[in-house]
Write a structure and sequence with these properties.
4 strands, 5 helices, about 160 residues, alpha+beta, 2 domains
Length: about 160
């Protein structure tokens, strides 16, 4: 399951400057190495900063649904506060305030102006086919899945 999390520093006086971004790079690398071994594996698949450097947008993947996805980032926050310059960015005992959303196919259509809508429609249909328990379809899906895996490995 994918989640999009918007994180801002609780201390509104600070932004995501160069030092903060470098610390976050290290923190996300740490988070991904630790969280992949958890009972419910998680991974930060992407992160970006707003133009004004006030917000970080995190794409988080989890094998299972998370009741509170922002709590899944506690490992990241703890690492940043204890091992980087970001300890000075915290306010009280809190580093970030966060807002979460679950991206949907509809949101993806809107964000790219419809450029990839036909591709997303095909992916949606593929996902629907995965639900069907038909021997002839399953053989085709195995081949398609192997091809998708090769593509994903190529662009890792």
């Amino acid at each position: 399951m994918y989640y999009r999390i918007y994180a801002q520093f609780v201390n509104q006086k600070v932004k995501y400057d160069i030092e903060a971004k470098e610390a976050i790079d290290r923190g996300i690398e740490f988070f991904n190495s630790k969280s992949l071994m958890a009972k419910n594996s998680k991974k930060i698949t992407d992160y970006q900063f707003s133009k004004d450097d006030s917000t970080m947008v995190i794409s988080l993947y989890s094998d299972q649904e998370l009741p509170n996805p922002s709590k899944a980032l506690r490992i990241l926050s703890t690492f940043l506060v204890t091992n980087t310059c970001l300890r000075d960015y915290s306010y009280g005992k809190q580093l970030f305030k966060m807002r979460m959303e679950v991206p949907s196919v509809e949101n993806l259509y809107e964000t790219d102006g419809g450029k990839t809508s036909s591709q997303l429609e095909r992916v949606s249909k593929y996902l629907e086919l995965l639900k069907i328990q038909d021997e002839s379809i399953n053989e085709d899906l195995v081949l398609l899945d192997e091809h998708i895996e090769q593509i994903l490995e190529k662009y890792k």
